[in-house]
TrEMBL record:
<dbReference type="InterPro" id="IPR009648">
    <property type="entry name" value="Malonate_gamma"/>
</dbReference>
<keyword id="KW-0456">Lyase</keyword>
<protein>
    <submittedName>
        <fullName>Biotin-independent malonate decarboxylase subunit gamma</fullName>
        <ecNumber>4.1.1.88</ecNumber>
    </submittedName>
</protein>
<dbReference type="InterPro" id="IPR029045">
    <property type="entry name" value="ClpP/crotonase-like_dom_sf"/>
</dbReference>
<dbReference type="GO" id="GO:0016829">
    <property type="term" value="F:lyase activity"/>
</dbReference>
<dbReference type="Pfam" id="PF06833">
    <property type="entry name" value="MdcE"/>
</dbReference>
<dbReference type="GO" id="GO:0005975">
    <property type="term" value="P:carbohydrate metabolic process"/>
</dbReference>
């Protein structure tokens, strides 16, 4: 979905979001409540410039608008794969962005991630997966790695990976599979403003992704391992 159409749908009361070089930044209103909007568009890869721009926008929100909710609109093909970015330490820039998101949360800002088009690898990890809760539109594309690339890296045939993806969401792309694994809180269909209103009203209760993955049957061992580490260190295999 085009970000402008999305913004008009999400914010019928109006918004002041601007785009500059595939970076989105601005503010909007939901039922009279102001929120900051930060994101990307155009399937842009996250290089050092956009990572810094997002971090700067988050820190400015923390400094100038204490407690204001932050909506992260996500459309990225992931980390920019250029020699220049690697030499500059793109991993550190992305880590800095993640730390800024965490700082905002610790300062009382509710952070919501919305994948409205594409979310791949590190570009999603340091934005939507750092949020208090992440959501997606039904037609969004979410994956860590495409199956052809995964086949080349793992030396497992693409046919076998495709077969595994039928029963194991870890291997499969798409919002439904990330919903099963607990990476997404919900998939938004219908009235997007109502969904956003509900998300803003929800009270954060820590990181529930592993528990949701277990409950939904898409990630069966993460939560038992966490509980074992927190107790006696033994994982029971039934």
């Amino acid at each position: 979905m085009d970000w402008k159409k999305l913004a008009d749908t999400l914010f019928p009361q109006g918004h002041a979001i601007v785009e500059q070089n595939d970076f989105l930044c601005g503010s909007a209103q939901v039922d009279g409540q102001a929120l900051a909007v930060i994101g990307t568009t155009g399937h842009t890869p996250i290089g050092v410039e956009i990572a810094l721009a997002q971090a700067k926008a988050i820190l400015r929100t923390v400094r100038e608008f204490p407690g204001m909710p932050i909506l992260m609109l996500i459309d990225t093909q992931g980390q920019r794969l250029r020699h220049r970015d690697e030499m500059l330490g793109i991993n550190s820039y992305m880590a800095h962005l993640g730390k800024c998101v965490d700082l905002a949360r610790r300062k009382g800002h509710k952070i919501i991630g919305l994948v409205y088009d594409q979310a791949l690898s590190g570009g999603f990890i340091t934005s939507g997966l750092m949020a208090d809760a992440s959501y997606a539109l039904p037609d969004a594309t979410i994956r860590v790695m495409g199956l052809p690339a995964m086949a080349r890296i793992t030396k497992v045939s693409e046919e076998r990976l495709t077969e595994l993806a039928q029963s194991n969401p870890v291997f499969a792309p798409g919002p439904e599979n990330y919903l099963r694994m607990g990476g997404l809180e919900a998939i938004w269909e219908g009235d997007l403003t109502a969904h956003l209103r509900t998300a803003l009203a929800a009270v954060p209760d820590g990181d529930q992704r592993s528990a949701l993955g277990l409950q939904r049957g898409g990630r069966r061992w993460a939560q038992p391992v966490i509980e074992a580490v927190m107790t006696d260190g033994h994982v029971r295999v039934d």
